[in-house]
């Protein structure tokens, strides 16, 4: 079992795409993005492209209920 911190991101707009995602990508072994919630289809599609296999939801309540 990995000791990396599992993170959920609420909102995957420009700030998350251009700053959070690149920074978290460099933290291999320390933190992994486990789930993302965003109400906008385009942002969810980008999240799916950048983080294949990550759980993606339309709302934070869905994410918290399921993950």
Topology:
Blueprint: E1 5-10, H1 14-25, E2 31-37, H2 41-50, E3 55-57, H3 60-66
Parallel strand pairs: 1-2, 2-3
Characterise this structure.
By secondary structure, the chain is of the alpha/beta class. 43% of the residues lie in helices and 24% in strands. It is built from 3 helices and 3 strands. The chain has helices at residues 14-25, 41-50, 60-66, and strands at residues 5-10, 31-37, 55-57. The protein has a 3-stranded parallel beta sheet. Strand 2 (31-37), helix 2 (41-50) and strand 3 (55-57) form a beta-alpha-beta unit. The protein is globular.
Percentage of β-strand residues: 15-25%
Instruction: Specify the number of helices.
Output: 3
The stretches of 5 or more residues where confidence is low (pLDDT under 50) are: none
What spatial form do the alpha-carbon principal axes imply? globular
Describe the largest sheet: 3 strands, parallel
Could you give a quick summary of the protein structure above?
The protein has three helices and three strands. The chain has helices spanning 14-25, 41-50, 60-66, and strands spanning 5-10, 31-37, 55-57.
What attributes characterize this protein structure?
67 residues, alpha/beta, single chain, 24% strand, 3-stranded parallel beta sheet
């Amino acid at each position: 079992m990995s000791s990396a911190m599992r993170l959920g991101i609420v909102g995957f707009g420009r700030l998350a795409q251009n700053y959070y995602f690149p920074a978290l990508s460099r933290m291999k072994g320390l933190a992994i993005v486990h789930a993302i919630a965003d109400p906008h289809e385009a942002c969810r599609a980008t999240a799916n492209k950048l983080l294949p296999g990550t759980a993606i939801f339309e709302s934070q309540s869905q994410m918290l209920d399921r993950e």
